[in-house]
Amino acid sequence: MSLQDKFSKLQQNLSQQIVGQETLIERLMIALLADGHLIVEGAPGLAKTRAINALSKAIEGNFHRIQFTPDLLPADLTGTEIYRPQDGTFKFEKGPIFHNLVLADEINRAPAKVQSALLEAMAERQVTVGSHTYNLDKLFLVMATQNPIEQEGTYPLPEAQLDRFLMHVKVGYPDAAAEAKILALTRAEAHKDFTETESIDLMQDDLFAARDQVLDIHMSDELQAYIIQLIVNTRDTLNLDKDLNRWLDYGASPRATISLDRCARASAWLAGRDYVTPEDIQSTAFDVLRHRLILTYEAEAEGIDSDKVIEKLIAITPVA
Fold first, then answer.
1. Exposed (0-12), middle (13-18) or buried (19+): which is 160, by Cβ within 10 Å?
2. How far apart are CA 316 and CA 312, in angstroms?
3. Cα 71 to chain center, whole Å?
């Protein structure tokens, strides 16, 4: 079985367990292949936790869920040094961040110092406690969630920290047909005779080999220039478009260029192609740029959100 077939099987298995959230499942696949992290925004009860939990059972690796609360401390994530009175030494006890897949549930519920501890681990793939630095595993994916409904008692992530996430994914409500399937699935799982079959569909070596294949996906010089122009157009709007100039306060950083390149390649690979198309770039551009654009007060007053800006950006940027 080829690596693409293994990923296709994994995606199909997840779709049977996570009904009505195909986009979230696909973005999890892309994040695995692009070696990045996700921030997922959606109302409670939309299977965000269930998705990452199901993924952890299907790949070789371990999983931990961290519920972010206002009283959480950085050491609750990273771990801490424990004094050993029997020999007068300190021993480092690893925290939950030392897992392959980490769910940071309601990340905006914890104060800035806790968010910083997590985001340092995401960016540097290491944790520093005292004078010692500890490396994280090669397979390390964080999926952070945010509840867009209630904002009381939250600590919004600064833009510079949001930039560390590969993609910002919005999940919505399932349709009526999917809702019926969800009911049938939950009834089956609640049945006393139900037995959950757990099988590892993907080994870590397969994942790392797939990442190498994704990096080798062909991208023409014209499409690479198209990616660069999309990002540059978020910064230089004065002579580009009067609406974008009114709506955008700050554009995307070079990290957005890198992320869009990696995500477009991963999207093409998942589709079974060995080359990138403009559609691969445009379909992933929303999730890559959504959290990296800072809008003006004028845009917010007009009811313009990041997605509207990205739509405009794609419309006025020609594909070479």
1. exposed
2. 6
3. 25
Identify the DSSP state of 141.
E
pLDDT > 90? residue 206: yes
The CATH fold assigned to 217-316 is: Helicase, Ruva Protein; domain 3 (1.10.8)
Locate the domains of the chain by residue range.
3-190, 217-316
Say what angle helices 204-215 and 22-34 make with each other, to 10 degrees. Answer: 80
Rounded to two decimals, the pTM is 0.91
Phi-psi region of 20 (alpha: psi -120 to 50; beta: other; left: phi over 0): left
Q: What is the CATH number of domain 3-190?
A: 3.40.50.300
Average confidence score pLDDT of the chain? 89
Residues 6+ apart with CB under 8 A from 14: 25, 28, 51, 54, 55, 58
Question: Given this chain, do its domains 3-190 and 217-316 carry the same CATH topology?
Answer: no
H runs (alpha helix) in 79-220 = 112-124, 159-162, 176-190, 204-215
When pLDDT is cut at 50, 70 and 90, the band that residue 202 belongs to is: confident
**Coil, strand, or helix at residue 132?**
strand
Q: Which has the higher per-residue pLDDT, 255 or 150?
A: 255
- Going by DSSP bridges, is the β-strand pair 167-170/141-146 parallel, antiparallel, or unpaired? unpaired
In this structure, the chain runs to a length of 320
DSSP 217-273: SB--HHHHHHHHHHHHTTT--TTT-HHHHHHEEE---HHHHHHHHHHHHHHHHHTT-
Please write the tens of the pLDDT for every residue from 21-62: 899 999 999 999 999 999 999 888 888 888 998 898 899 889
Of residues 32 and 151, more confidence is placed in: 32
Rounded Cα distance between 289 and 301, Å, is 21
Residue 94 to residue 234: CA distance in whole angstroms: 41
